[in-house]
Amino acid sequence: MENKRKVSYYYDSDVGDYYYGMSHPMKPHRVRMAHDLIVRYGLYKQLQVYKPLHATLDDMAAFHHRDYLEYLTVADRGGDRATANASLKAKFNLKGDCPVFEGVFRYCQSYVGASLGGAVQLNHGQADTVINWAGGLHHAKTNQAAGFCYVNDIVLAILELLKYHKRVLYIDIDIHHGDGVEEAFFDTDRVLTVSFHKYGDDFFPGTGGPEEVGVDTGKYYAVNVPLDDGMDDASFAFLFEPIMEEVVARYRPEAIVLQSGADSLTGDRLGRFNLTIKGHAACHKFMMKFGLPMLVVGGGGYKIKNVARCWAYETAVLLGVEASVPDDLPPNEYYEYFKPDYKLHLTPDATLKNRNDQGSLARVLRTVLDNLRHIRPAPAGPEQLPGPAGAAQQQLEKAAEAGRRRAEGDARASDQADGMDVDR
Ligand code: V1D
Ligand code: CA
């Protein structure tokens, strides 16, 4: 069933030319590199490939303030020179992390147009899965840029999906908290947001603590999974799978948006997790099994050769053909970037300690599953609080058993009970 899904893929060949500046870690060129691998692996033959239509200012005004968008159009035309007004620049946060650069508004029009076009296709059943690796700019606020993000294509795409779907599930596996999307839907139960992220040590943006669950009708419909450095594949799956199983069972979403920020990979320039590409892509595979319409967007990712590898492999996963993608990279335009091994897959960093031990993972899981007991499919009905269902209950029992055995000093039995290796 999975490999029969109709997959649309949006790509604008101009994207790689937008440039945040020399010392800035965000490089849109990585999307061009990913695209080249997708082509050289032959994956494009199984995709419906689209060039996005540019979104208009009116399209973006469904979420953003017009004065902010108008300022971005001025910035677009003249770059930094056109926006000499320091007070407006400060008001809209167009400095530091979010510099004004030549073409900044056209860049936004392109990646927003792709996410919006994808949402429209999903609404009309023209695709089962839509991919936009240039999108996923989850920090942008209504009237401000933030964290390398100017216009929030995710919020705009979700608003589009809500025209045809009662409930939309948003999942964010970027190492940073998906604060802009969470904030936009914090008071509604029509969108359930789940973000997995590094939390603490003043890591950007500093939000996404476990107590942040939403307000009013949206209370409990914002889910945060705060994590520490060194998350590995087993630890990530230990949380991701039971949480998402439980979210889908309780919330019954009609569509999914998956932000696939690649800064959660091992070796990232800004990130501190230790995920391999297979561990990252396991999240896609897991969500595909629900058979729901799904929009997949990019996000962060600052070791660009790994971002390209990751998103090319995830394209194969979303097509259901990853088993036939060789680990040897095909000859491609950017071949020298991939030295010294010229392989697709990554090995975790054996020297990076996983600061998420079995106890902390079990505590996070318990807190999240407790909060999820309040969830029911919107529109709201009378509240019932049954315990966690199936897989989530089993995971909790395994964690509790592992904890008990560890406390008894039987480490070997504990590893067998929890089936993972989070301490090494
Ligand atoms: F290292 C840098 C060099 C140049 C410019 C910026 C940075 C940088 C690194 N990390 N900026 C950050 C983060 N900003 C701060 C600011 C310091 N201030 C007081 C706040 O720590 C921002 C990180 C943004 C991450 C973006 C993202 O990966 O989540 C993303 N997702 O989709 C698109 C981007
Ligand atoms: Ca995240």
Distance from N terminus to C terminus (CA atoms, Å) equals 37 Å
Question: Per the principal axes of the C-alpha atoms, what is the gross shape?
Answer: globular
The CATH class is identified as: Alpha Beta
- What's the CATH architecture? 3-Layer(aba) Sandwich
Main beta sheet: strand number and arrangement?
Answer: 8 strands, parallel
Helix content: 25-40%
Give the DSSP E fraction (strand runs of 2 or more residues): 5-15%
In CATH, the topology is named Arginase, Chain A
Number of strands: 8
Mean pLDDT: 91
Q: What is the count of helical runs?
A: 13
Rg for CA atoms? 21 Å
N-to-C order of helices and strands: EHEHHHHEHEHEEHEHEHHHH
What are the distinct ligands in this entry? Answer: ligand V1D, calcium ion
Q: Count structural domains.
A: 1
Structural class: alpha/beta
Give descriptors for this structure:
single chain, 424 residues, alpha/beta, Arginase, Chain A, eight-stranded parallel sheet, 8 strands, 37% helix, globular, disordered C terminus, binds ligand V1D, binds calcium ion
Task: State the gist of this model.
Belongs to the histone deacetylase family. HD Type 1 subfamily. 37% of the residues lie in helices and 9% in strands. The protein is α/β, with parallel strands linked by helices.
